[in-house]
Amino acid sequence: MVQPLSQSADLKFLVFGAGAIGTYIGGSLALAGHQVVFVEQPEMVKELRRQGLRLDLTIDESVVLSLSKRRKHALSGVEGTKDAFIIDPRSFVIEPSLEEALKYGPFDTAIFALKSFDTLSALEGLKPFADKLPPLLCLSNGVENEQAIARVLGADKVIYGTVTSAIGRRGPSDIVLEKLRGVGVAAGHPLSEKLVKTLDRAFLKCRLYPEAHSMKWSKMLTNLIANPTSAILNMTAAQVFANRKLYKLEIDMLKECIAVMKAQNLEVVDLPGTPVKALAFATKLPLWLSKPFLSRAAGSGRGAKMPSFHIDLYSARGRGQSEVQYLHGAVVREGKARGIPTPVNELLTDTLLALTRKEIPLEEFANQPEKLLSKLKS
């Protein structure tokens, strides 16, 4: 039997997946007193129902202090420790199927933050429930997920969003905030402004953006840095940037993306805690002058983690798939449609996909920058 949730909160949220972003956003909303229902794989549900959610937010003392005060006055089922908030399983709902989760509706908003290679299959599962689904705030990386959601569920069911905070995952439902930057939400949807206020009150540092595509492409620009090169060469971002020729490759790759943005009349915009305009400007500087800035951006942007493409390629969680075709690949596709050459992005996309699909062995380019560079020249 489905037990009714508390009716005290302003908004009710449906969260697809309790991964790093889902746990961080959904957990923060639960800490702020909102009603949150997660949909997760059946094998994960039992564990999360038993142990709850663990959010380590200690990197920002103001968040911890404010949430601690609020918890004393307004929240139940939340235990604070010296290094984390433990959200009791009774304070949220987690279900193994969308059908079960929707029994707790109607919902105001859904949080969609899946890997881009999971978007189409996820939408096939959502399609039969389109009439019951709320608008989806899409926080996935890439620039094509929102259009896919609109095609399947309708344009009124998608809100463009982005996350720039760095989130680490220690285990199921156990996340650590590595760098607090914020969340972006695009204007244009009836819920946009209310969502911004709600997320901001949940200490997610949310900001409203007037133009959705400039926001999403600017976020993707930050995702491109030292991502495929790290995976292809099995090198850290720092090692990539230490190599002069590889650094030039990174600059050329970013220039291609900026040229494609310009062809679409899109502006590079700063994102919460992320000076993307400075990143774009750095590509116009002499290499020796821009390198210190971009090296810091590549090193700090992902917290303590290796770039995501490297993680997907070398871990079982990657499941033989890569988001490169939805990031760098999107640059290539849009470039071809608008007559903008993108040879670096195309090389990186094709090479990493070949590695991902095991068409060539992982060792093919490992620690061999010259081999990759010679492929570009050829």
List keywords for this structure.
single chain, 378 residues, alpha/beta, N-(1-d-carboxylethyl)-l-norvaline Dehydrogenase, domain 2, 2 domains, eight-stranded mixed β-sheet, five-stranded mixed β-sheet, 46% helix
> Cα-atom Rg, whole angstroms?
21 Å
Biggest sheet, spatial arrangement of strands = 6-2-1-7-8-9-12-13
**What is the strand content?**
5-15%
Amino-to-carboxy terminus distance: 64 Å
In DSSP terms, counting alpha (H) and pi (I) runs of 4 or more, how many helices?
Answer: 17
- What is the mean predicted local confidence, pLDDT? 90
List low-pLDDT spans.
1-8, 72-78
CATH architecture of the largest domain: 3-Layer(aba) Sandwich
Q: What is the number of E strands?
A: 13
Helix content: 40-55%
CATH C-level class of the largest domain is: Alpha Beta
Going by CATH, the homologous superfamily of the largest domain would be: NAD(P)-binding Rossmann-like Domain
Look at the helices and sheets and give the structural class: alpha/beta
The main pleated sheet reads as: 8 strands, mixed
CATH topology of the largest domain: Rossmann fold
Could you describe the 3D structure shown?
The N terminus is likely disordered. The termini are far apart. The protein has two domains: 199 residues, Rossmann fold (3-Layer(aba) Sandwich); 163 residues, N-(1-d-carboxylethyl)-l-norvaline Dehydrogenase, domain 2 (Orthogonal Bundle), CATH 1.10.1040. The protein has 378 residues and is of the alpha/beta class. The strands form two sheets. The chain has an eight-stranded mixed sheet, with helices on both faces. Strand 7, helix 5 and strand 8 form a beta-alpha-beta unit.
